[in-house]
């Protein structure tokens, strides 16, 4: 009782102090929202606005939860190259060698990735081995994983990384993180491909209430939320498309995955692998020697990924018995001759091909457990119709025509396989969700079958008229599209449904026959558009729209203004006709992107798009601020400019952002790399809980700072 009373007295005394005195309190490394709720309860709700609470955390969702209504979350940036080199040199170079011509530090700086703890640790380690006159940075980099596991100098960093790993709840989430060791450091990983691999290999297990892909997506989001992986590219709606591991976290993942025999990795020439390998990954010319694989029992391998060249032993697919995941997209030695052996891998669930593959055999019908087929990096032009008979297949990715067994309606009815496909699909047995995508001239009998693919959620189509035909009949294609986008209100209305149409070689008028009611969550139209097709205006649930054409006319833009539920809009054109976006137009729009050859931006009136968060102005010829007035967007968080705008223009936008009440960031767009290294701009007026300068992290674990 005394201890509780004593604790209560201390709490009362603390509450008295913060009620009657100004305070500045720093709370370091909050790990859960529950921790913050307990701490927050000690603070008064009616603060006079002169006090500050600063919270640091590594978890983005915790940072958001800690932020008050008028608070601010600052995401810590890594050090730039200049600051990284200076910090490293301070720790690595003894004073007596300050004027010594230092060796090249590029390799070590790339490994450290601008992270202060990594730079300090590597600097102290190199100093201990006689740098700059001793061993080079390249030597240290080549043995970094050994030193991370055993080196005394690496103790603090090792404990920090292990703490992040140990905090991951459950085996599945840890396995998802270790899986990143399958890929080279310079290889951006596509999120959706990664999720399909996790699902195919059983790293995430299906539950009655949630399928494997949704669980995989939740695990991915958790790793992203904890800043263990970082985004590289994002889609129009802001979702992550590609990602990567980084810095010493990547080295830690490699070291841990290999030591736990989670991945058998060939990325150097130093050691031979053991007999048992569950996941085999070969990187860049380290699999050319057959002798290195003489001890490995390939019959037990469940996942095989190859980057670069590979020896005959590895590509002898008759040796594999348990293979579930096969990624040969970056394999240089893959030929058509290998595909026959792949078709005998009866347990295969994920198949990604590349190299010089030009065709798929009919034997692909043997892969009855296949869930994902990716031929985007191949030279496959014709997809055999047997693919559509695979009962578990959910995702087909590439750019192909459908086999001529269903090419013409008259032929289709006479072919045995064609009739089998029609019967299979008409009975509702198809599980295909993604068909992205196929090339059509409007005459394929396959178009009559799309209506039977009841699970179809994403379709991508290239419309290319036949050169031999004087005119093109698109009626079958329009019927197929009409069936796909039909508004089935009796089904789950929240289901994501996406359509992408490319019609650069024909007029967009062929879309006129499509009528409502229709449902799509995402629509992308690339081609000659003079007016917006009527069905677009009547679409229910449309949240994402991308239009790409030579010239965006006033008629198209006026129609866009009526899309009241649109959240993400991307407009690609050489120029835009003179147009004004009126008050109350696009009330739910969050992200807007203009990609123009000429800076002919529309006039946006005060009150339009009032909840806009991201504005992308991708035109290199922007010269001033007159194109768009950002003051009318009170919730704006970032402005992204073309990387080739002048420095003067960039400074003008940065100044305008500083004067904006919400202090949006000004970034330069980088293809495939949304992550900017420059420091975030700060909001000069954070109301009750604002700050006026960047606070450095209190320790390496802090990646976000919350001011409340």
Automatic annotation (TrEMBL):
Tagged with keyword Repeat: yes
Span of domain Disease resistance protein winged helix: 182-253
Keywords, sorted A to Z: Plant defense, Repeat
Domain NB-ARC as annotated: residue spans: 22-96
GO biological process terms held by the UniProt record: defense response to bacterium; innate immune response-activating signaling pathway; plant-type hypersensitive response
UniProt cross-references to Gene3D superfamilies, sorted A to Z: P-loop containing nucleotide triphosphate hydrolases, Ribonuclease Inhibitor, Winged helix-like DNA-binding domain superfamily/Winged helix DNA-binding domain
Domain annotation Disease resistance R13L4/SHOC-2-like LRR: ranges: 301-665
Lineage: superkingdom: Eukaryota
Recorded GO MF terms: ADP binding
PANTHER family, A to Z: DISEASE RESISTANCE PROTEIN RGA4, DISEASE RESISTANCE PROTEIN RP
Protein name listed in UniProt: NB-ARC domain-containing protein
